[in-house]
């Protein structure tokens, strides 16, 4: 056995890991190796405490919780927005915590998609997340007869990754808006936001990104890159909890734009309770809020984001790459696990925080993994996503995943399960 193949090697890597103490901040179950943090991050003790604090404020203050207590609710979305701004490399007034990824996409396409003359098309790519397609087509239907004619979809050459030059080639004088994901949800390919933004702007096109799979795993520089708008969820790598409030970013150069979908929480805060029928737009990204914030789904973020402020995203990214490099090396080290096709780009700058493996028995291999205490993520028809998360996964966790996978392939235990998708996968 080579040194790499030993548990001792994994343990030695853990000894040297500066983020190791943070695993105890999370609820990890004994005997379970959770590598699904790119679908739903684990619960932290700090997130739990923050929810209890907001709950206590409700008990104690009733309506006065809007202005009193530890985290006055009236300004909490802005306060969380500031913490999120530092994670995406934006000015504090460019980010707000609000809505969901889907509702924020609707808000920002309603704001930025203004077909005019020949410039009527929206560009996205064939590998984008379904909700992004549904939102785009909704807006195309609002402006045109159908949701198809003005949609331009950039195809993937290999079915898993995109070629940035193909995307740029689709940007012409007929394009109004480009909407892409920063990291693809399946293959975890990472796109260059700067390169694509420069190309769009050189052609007079507005460009926005969906950061669901990169926020909390990769540092961003949205303002400096000049990105026009962005959205993201907070329940994946940010560990905000199921359905936690999402985020949106709008570059300062667009802060005079009227929100496409205005609501009273987008008002100037001093004016909101004037109760005027005329909207007085709030400052910055806050103007893109709609109704009353979902306080109980915002609360966990107070605690969850504290961890990121303490650790810093550079350290998170550094460990994340080490974990996925180690995973790939181990996978290649055993004959039984060499049967998987790795669809994630190998180059660090093109890789997000998870690894996507393909195998025709993927559905039942995932069921066998779960039964053996490893929680992966299945994507039909043949994908297995493994996301070792820097804040709570160890090198020993990665070792356990590969050794378990090896055993399952060796004994063919997956044959005891049906190779079909569950309702939630
Ligand atoms: C997870 C995810 C979403 C989810 O959107 P919700 O509105 O939170 O349901 C959207 N886009 C991408 C790329 C995702 O990965």
UniProtKB/TrEMBL annotation:
<dbReference type="GO" id="GO:0009435">
    <property type="term" value="P:NAD+ biosynthetic process"/>
</dbReference>
<feature type="binding site">
    <location>
        <position position="101"/>
    </location>
    <ligand>
        <name>pyridoxal 5'-phosphate</name>
    </ligand>
</feature>
<comment type="pathway">
    <text>Cofactor biosynthesis; NAD(+) biosynthesis; quinolinate from L-kynurenine: step 2/3.</text>
</comment>
<keyword id="KW-0662">Pyridine nucleotide biosynthesis</keyword>
<dbReference type="InterPro" id="IPR015424">
    <property type="entry name" value="PyrdxlP-dep_Trfase"/>
</dbReference>
<dbReference type="GO" id="GO:0030170">
    <property type="term" value="F:pyridoxal phosphate binding"/>
</dbReference>
<comment type="subunit">
    <text>Homodimer.</text>
</comment>
<feature type="binding site">
    <location>
        <position position="264"/>
    </location>
    <ligand>
        <name>pyridoxal 5'-phosphate</name>
    </ligand>
</feature>
<comment type="function">
    <text>Catalyzes the cleavage of L-kynurenine (L-Kyn) and L-3-hydroxykynurenine (L-3OHKyn) into anthranilic acid (AA) and 3-hydroxyanthranilic acid (3-OHAA), respectively.</text>
</comment>
<dbReference type="GO" id="GO:0019441">
    <property type="term" value="P:L-tryptophan catabolic process to kynurenine"/>
</dbReference>
<dbReference type="GO" id="GO:0030429">
    <property type="term" value="F:kynureninase activity"/>
</dbReference>
<dbReference type="GO" id="GO:0043420">
    <property type="term" value="P:anthranilate metabolic process"/>
</dbReference>
<feature type="binding site">
    <location>
        <position position="210"/>
    </location>
    <ligand>
        <name>pyridoxal 5'-phosphate</name>
    </ligand>
</feature>
<dbReference type="GO" id="GO:0005737">
    <property type="term" value="C:cytoplasm"/>
</dbReference>
<dbReference type="InterPro" id="IPR015422">
    <property type="entry name" value="PyrdxlP-dep_Trfase_small"/>
</dbReference>
<dbReference type="InterPro" id="IPR010111">
    <property type="entry name" value="Kynureninase"/>
</dbReference>
<dbReference type="GO" id="GO:0019805">
    <property type="term" value="P:quinolinate biosynthetic process"/>
</dbReference>
<keyword id="KW-0663">Pyridoxal phosphate</keyword>
<keyword id="KW-0378">Hydrolase</keyword>
<dbReference type="InterPro" id="IPR015421">
    <property type="entry name" value="PyrdxlP-dep_Trfase_major"/>
</dbReference>
<dbReference type="Pfam" id="PF22580">
    <property type="entry name" value="KYNU_C"/>
</dbReference>
<feature type="binding site">
    <location>
        <position position="102"/>
    </location>
    <ligand>
        <name>pyridoxal 5'-phosphate</name>
    </ligand>
</feature>
<feature type="binding site">
    <location>
        <position position="292"/>
    </location>
    <ligand>
        <name>pyridoxal 5'-phosphate</name>
    </ligand>
</feature>
<comment type="similarity">
    <text>Belongs to the kynureninase family.</text>
</comment>
<dbReference type="GO" id="GO:0097053">
    <property type="term" value="P:L-kynurenine catabolic process"/>
</dbReference>
<feature type="binding site">
    <location>
        <position position="235"/>
    </location>
    <ligand>
        <name>pyridoxal 5'-phosphate</name>
    </ligand>
</feature>
<feature type="modified residue" description="N6-(pyridoxal phosphate)lysine">
    <location>
        <position position="236"/>
    </location>
</feature>
<feature type="binding site">
    <location>
        <position position="213"/>
    </location>
    <ligand>
        <name>pyridoxal 5'-phosphate</name>
    </ligand>
</feature>
<comment type="pathway">
    <text>Amino-acid degradation; L-kynurenine degradation; L-alanine and anthranilate from L-kynurenine: step 1/1.</text>
</comment>
<feature type="binding site">
    <location>
        <begin position="129"/>
        <end position="132"/>
    </location>
    <ligand>
        <name>pyridoxal 5'-phosphate</name>
    </ligand>
</feature>
<protein>
    <recommendedName>
        <fullName>Kynureninase</fullName>
        <ecNumber>3.7.1.3</ecNumber>
    </recommendedName>
</protein>
């Amino acid at each position: 056995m080579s040194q790499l193949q030993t548990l001792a090697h994994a343990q030695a890597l853990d000894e040297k890991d500066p983020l190791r103490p943070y695993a105890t901040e999370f609820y990890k179950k004994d005997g379970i190796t959770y590598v699904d943090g790119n679908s739903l991050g684990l619960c932290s003790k700090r997130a739990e405490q923050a929810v209890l604090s907001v709950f206590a404020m409700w008990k104690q203050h009733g309506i006065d919780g809007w202005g009193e207590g530890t985290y006055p609710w009236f300004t909490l979305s802005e306060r969380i927005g500031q913490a999120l701004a530092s994670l995406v490399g934006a000015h504090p007034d460019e980010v707000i915590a609000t809505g969901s990824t889907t509702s924020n996409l609707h808000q920002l396409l309603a704001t930025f998609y203004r077909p005019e003359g020949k410039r009527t098309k929206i560009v996205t790519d064939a590998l984008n997340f379904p909700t992004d397609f549904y939102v785009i087509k909704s807006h195309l239907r609002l402006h045109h007869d159908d949701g198809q004619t003005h949609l331009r979809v950039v195809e993937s050459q290999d079915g898993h990754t995109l070629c940035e030059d193909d995307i740029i080639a689709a940007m012409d004088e007929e394009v109004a808006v480009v909407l892409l994901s920063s990291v693809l949800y399946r293959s975890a390919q990472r796109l260059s936001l700067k390169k694509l933004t420069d190309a769009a702007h050189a052609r007079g096109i507005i460009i926005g990104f969906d950061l669901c799979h990169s926020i909390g795993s990769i540092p961003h520089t949205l303002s400096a890159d000049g990105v026009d708008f962005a959205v993201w969820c907070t329940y994946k790598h940010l560990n905000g909890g199921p359905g936690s409030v999402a985020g949106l970013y709008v570059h300062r150069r667009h802060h005079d734009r009227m929100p496409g979908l205005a609501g009273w929480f987008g008002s100037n805060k001093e004016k909101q309770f004037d109760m005027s029928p005329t909207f007085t737009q709030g400052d910055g990204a806050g103007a893109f809020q709609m109704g009353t914030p979902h306080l109980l789904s915002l609360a966990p973020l107070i605690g969850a984001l504290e961890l990121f402020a303490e650790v810093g995203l550079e350290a998170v990214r550094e460990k994340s790459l080490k974990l996925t490099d180690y995973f790939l090396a181990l996978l290649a080290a055993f004959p039984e696990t060499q049967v998987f096709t790795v669809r994630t780009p190998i180059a660090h700058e093109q890789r997000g925080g998870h690894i996507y493996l393909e195998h025709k028995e993927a559905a039942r291999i995932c069921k066998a993994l779960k039964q053996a205490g490893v929680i992966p993520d299945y994507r039909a028809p043949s994908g297995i996503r493994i996301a070792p998360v820097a804040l709570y996964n160890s090198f020993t966790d990665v070792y356990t995943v590969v050794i378990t996978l090896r055993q399952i392939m060796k004994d063919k235990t997956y044959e005891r399960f049906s190779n079909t998708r569950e309702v939630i996968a």
